Amino acid sequence: MYVVGYGADAEVGPAELVDSYIVNLPLAGNGMVVADRQEVLAAPTVVSPGQRFRARKCADGTSLFVVIARDTVDKAVRDVLGEPPSTPVRFAVPIDPRNDEAVQWIALLRAVAGAADGGLLARSPLAAGHSEQLLVHGLLGFQPHSRSEAFAGPAPPAAPASLRRAMTFCDENASQPISVVDVAAAARVSVRTLQDIFRTHAQITPLGYLRRVRLEYAHRDLLAAAENGTQTTVTDVALRWGFVHLSRFAQLYRDTYGHLPSQALSQCRLT
Questions:
Q1: Of residues 115, 106, 200, the one with CA closest to residue 162
Q2: 23 close to 3: Cβ distance less than 8 angstroms
Q3: Range of the domain at 112
Q4: pTM of the model as a whole
Q5: What is the pLDDT of residue 268?
Q6: What CATH number corresponds to the domain at position 224?
Q7: Are 89 and 73 in contact (CB under 8 A)?
């Protein structure tokens, strides 16, 4: 991830990407990206491998650039469809900022960039890996691309035993930087099937369930620290379980347990 400003009117390119994707999120000022003769003014864009592009940037403009290796996208496609694409996935160039899922993804991108810049992701490899998965799989989920039709296809059925295996794996490995691919492997199903059985039988996503498990462990750690007088902080506990956005952790904790994590840490010490 890079935040780039030129300080003068500038033109980049023409160039052609080979083994990477570039997401361009304008932060300030005006600019234009042209990819395969399609012009996009002052809006988020995705340029894919094999696309020729150029960009014009104004002196007061800054952008957040995210470079994603083709191998990373290929692996995400393989995780969902069972095999990697024979040619690079080609995304639609403009990202529609009015699309609700795009809005959520851009907010996530900003949050991850902020966490990386502030050093939080370096302190929590668990959160770093989780964030990368969310960004790549999220982009494939909402942004139209050349394999969208395959992504929208029906998932094969799976027995509830697969769900139990997946949940057990999450429960036993929540402290590790596991991915949705690891959970699917433990359940002995594909990623798409895993997502389908969680949605059908548990009304939650696999990563949502994993987050719930980690929240429960964080809750236990806070109560244990309070009861035993262990010197720790809410931040330490949150990062231990992969929660780098502390305000969101606090809100999720309060929504689940009815009080703030700081209150859980202090309540036993006050009795």
A1: 200
A2: no
A3: 2-149
A4: 0.66
A5: 47
A6: 1.10.10.60
A7: yes
